[in-house]
Prior knowledge:
Layout: E1 6-14, E2 24-26, H1 27-39, E3 47-55, E4 60-67, H2 76-90, H3 102-112, H4 118-167, E5 176-185, E6 199-210, H5 217-224, E7 239-244, E8 251-256, E9 263-270, E10 285-286
Parallel strand pairs: 6-10
Antiparallel strand pairs: 1-2, 1-3, 3-4, 5-6, 5-9, 7-8, 8-9
Amino acid sequence: xxKRIPKTVFVHGSESRQFQTNDIWDFEDFEQKALxxxxxxxxxxxxxxxxTVTFHDDSEHQCxxxxxxNVNDLGFSDHCLSxxxxxxxxxxxxxxxxxxxxxxxxxxxxxxxYQLDRALVQQARAKAGEVIKEVKRKQEEEQRQxxxxxEESIRAHQQKEQAFQESLNIPEWAQAxxxxxxxxxxxxxxxxxxxxxxxxxxxxxxxxxxxxxxQRFPEMRKACLNHPDTVFLHDKTQSKEQRENYSMGAGNYLxxxxxxxxxxxxxxxxxxxxxxxxxxxxxxxxxxxxK
Length: 291
């Protein structure tokens, strides 16, 4: 049986702006443009494109192409040869009984009689492989740069915190410190798809020293008066008393009313090391008030 030669491609619709609905393309031109569209999706995404290919004998093949790299389609020829090769490799397997159904065998029979240039398909796949490799290289480089910047940021913070702690003049009678922190959702380090939600601290205020280690809410509210940003937490109608006095709990702490992992929080930090109380005090704005 003479091979069927693809001549034109009718585009029913596409997610790519490179193709317009009802466009008619010469087959070779379509394949070239389809490859360009696919190479624009090197990270696993694809543009659904619905087409009808007309052959020299006026027969037609209608299908959907997922134009993209990796396991997606690079064009009509790549699509057909991928389907054919996958069938040849797997149709004898017991779990692949669906491949031996009549409509599947009919499809493979049609593809075997299409005149498709496997050499061009191999070139397209090699080009896609190069694009994917380059994208991965850039992603890895960006990741290394992010890690480097994060490590440098951590070191800089540690140095500033150490200098801050060394500058503190903590009274001998102080047994704890009352700290206010404001946190917000960190979109850069969070990943909702995997259920990872991170916070970042945008402000820390050292409100007051305390003579005891008991977590008393009246004392926390009084300390809130020491800074204009936390004054509102002194008002019981604008704040909540959180009690987590259980194993792995955070103890007693004060928050704003709408606090849910993010927002204002006031807590007491005990000095566990009497010889070096300052190491329990985080870097922040120091309010010079003494209890």
